[in-house]
Amino acid sequence: MNRRALQLALREMQAASTGRYSRIGMILSTVLLAVSGPFGTFESFNLGQRVGYWGVMVVGSYLVGQAASSFFLELLREQITQKWPRVLLGGLLASLPVTIVVLLVNGVAYQHMDLAESLSIWMYATIVTLAVVVVFVTFSELMAGAPPAGAAEPAPAATPPPPAAPQAAILDRVPLPQRGRLLALTVEDHYVDIVTDRGKALVLMRLADAIREAAPVPGLQIHRSHWVALDAVSRTERSAGKVIVELSNGLRLPVSRGYMAMARDAGLVG
Fold first, then answer.
1. pTM of the predicted model, to two decimals?
2. What is the side-by-side strand order in the sheet with 199-203?
3. Could you tell me the maximum CA-CA distance found in the chain, to the nearest angstrom?
4. Fold entry, domain 158-265
5. CB 171: neighbour CB atoms within 10 A?
6. Which one of 17, 59, 224, 241 is least enclosed by Cβ atoms within 10 Å?
7. How large is the average pLDDT for residues 142-150?
8. Pairing of the two strands 158-159 and 182-188
9. More confident residue, 174 or 11
10. What are the residue boundaries of the structural domains of the chain, listed by start?
11. What are the strands, taking DSSP E only, across the chain?
């Protein structure tokens, strides 16, 4: 099993279960569904039973769906490089464990289940899971600081010059085996990859917040999804009309047009 994908799934489940807005959303969804009683639950259960039924259904399907979608999106990252095909396939695969949760809850609540009803549940679970995954990925990118398609890129952000032997606060988020000299910060879906000279670690946070925690390491945002430490850049080259910086660990990152002036002022681009 892909250990990285499993770690992401567990982190996503933990974040979904402990996050303030996730809890509020699950509570509001449970109350709304219990009061309205969709899918025949109004006739089948009293109010207290509906609260219990929908509470278990909402919490179970949401947490399992979040974990499963994160797992499959990471598992497919190397096989499918294009984002939206990967998101759609990941959502389809994630709908399977969500369907199992729904079937189990219904099996306990109704004490019966037939094939036609199971297929109907799978169809609804697939549609809902796909929609949630697409919305979640889009929303997470916006929260990470990536502008909508067609929007102008934000003003470049550079970390202020540091004192001698700087220590970045963001390194406290990195496990000890991978903790070292900070090289770069890159966005991966709704996570930030903290790259050091000893490895890297994924953290659920916005890129803008990660850049603030990178201070006082001298660095520069070169793309809406990438920040680099200036002393980590080993060389810069032009390839197919694009400017690429190569870091000391071999990582290659693009410099986008909106950040070219700052990169030139910092001496990264001639």
1. 0.55
2. 158-159, 219-223, 226-229, 182-188, 191-196, 199-203
3. 72
4. OB fold (Dihydrolipoamide Acetyltransferase, E2P) (2.40.50)
5. 18
6. 241
7. 45
8. unpaired
9. 174
10. 3-143, 158-265
11. 158-159, 182-188, 191-196, 199-203, 219-223, 226-229, 233-239, 242-247, 252-255
